[in-house]
UniProtKB/TrEMBL annotation:
One of the GO biological process terms: 'de novo' IMP biosynthetic process
Family: Belongs to the GART family.
Molecular function via GO: phosphoribosylglycinamide formyltransferase activity
SUPFAM superfamilies (alphabetical): Formyltransferase (SSF53328)
Record's protein name: Phosphoribosylglycinamide formyltransferase, chloroplastic
UniProt cross-references to PROSITE patterns, sorted A to Z: GART
Sequence segments annotated as region (Disordered): 1-29
Length: 288
């Protein structure tokens, strides 16, 4: 069902991101919430969850930075990592600093000894090993993973260099609530086998003059979900894969933190054709 809202500008038609499942269950036990201030130049569908319409002015976040809004609950995040975890650390720091209106409440990894898992343990963040494997016999099953995420009341799942395909049950449990970061401008240089330096080697070999990270929603396949945000970096004539990787990684941290901040602020809307957009924090009539 669609409600017509006076359209004075772009005539964009969109609907808000659904309320995270866990949060919807928490909220439904409460009464009284802030109703959405709809941007003027947009036509939106009504949310299936009425309390997902909460939207308000920026306020100072719990730890001093600017994040969240009146009526926007702090979100609970699970980050999935297989490696060093620099994106995880950027998100964790942004959450601690107030730039992201959420908290990392779980670190999920297939590599219990990886840098990301070490960082989580050092910061008191519970580590869940998934899946079980020869090198990680302490790993949990899909059902156990889902139960752990439910017990931790996780709102959003963030893949940050997690190299395993996530189970379809997780995708179904978290509709429009799982993000991934990929180190190329998708749909180019994505899919099975495109990870780590292989991506950057392929970009250089193709002769492409630009590359950059993509933040996208996750579906059942590798790197095929809807693109939410991208950044562009140049590919220089004498770049090595390592140099290009470092340039892209620098942008990854910024674009992922910005996308997660928008997700946690309920600033993502879905254009009628299925493309997710980020509503600007400074001007709710503008989208990126
Ligand atoms: C990043 O390049 C990311 O795009 C890819 O894996 C790498 C992870 O880096 N998915 P880090 O573990 O976050 O440092």
């Amino acid at each position: 069902m669609e409600s017509a809202v006076a359209s004075t500008g772009s005539g964009l038609r969109c609907s808000p991101n659904p309320m995270p499942k866990q949060q919807h269950e928490r909220r439904s036990a409460r009464v009284g919430f802030v109703s959405q201030l709809r941007p003027r130049a947009v036509r939106c569908r009504r949310s299936p969850h009425p309390d997902a319409r909460a939207y308000a002015a920026v306020v100072v976040g719990a730890k001093g930075g600017e994040a969240g809004g009146v009526g926007v609950e702090r979100k609970r995040l699970a980050v999935f990592v297989s490696g060093g975890g620099s994106n995880f650390r950027a998100i964790h720091e942004a959450a601690l600093g107030g730039e992201v209106n959420g908290d990392v409440v779980a670190l999920v990894t297939d590599k219990p000894g990886c840098g990301g898992a070490e960082h989580a343990r050092g910061n008191g963040i519970p580590v869940v090993v998934f899946p079980k494997s020869k090198s990680a016999p302490e790993g949990v099953s899909t059902d156990e993973l889902l139960n752990a995420l439910r017990e931790l009341r996780v709102d959003f799942v963030l893949l940050a260099g997690y190299l395993k395909l996530i189970p379809v049950e997780l995708v179904q449990e978290y509709p429009k609530s799982i993000l991934n970061i990929h180190p190329s401008l998708l749909p180019a240089f994505g899919g099975k086998g495109y990870y780590g330096l292989k991506v950057h080697k392929a970009v250089i070999a193709s002769g492409a003059r630009y590359s950059g990270p993509t933040v996208h929603f996750v579906d059942e396949h590798y790197d095929t979900g809807s693109t939410l945000a991208q950044r562009v970096v140049p590919v220089l004539a004498n770049d090595t894969p390592e140099q290009l990787a470092a340039r892209v990684l620098h942008e990854e941290h910024q674009v992922y933190v910005e996308a997660v901040a928008a997700l946690c602020d309920d600033r993502i809307v879905w254009r009628e054709d299925g493309v997710p957009l980020i509503r600007r924090q400074t001007n709710p009539d503008e989208y990126t």
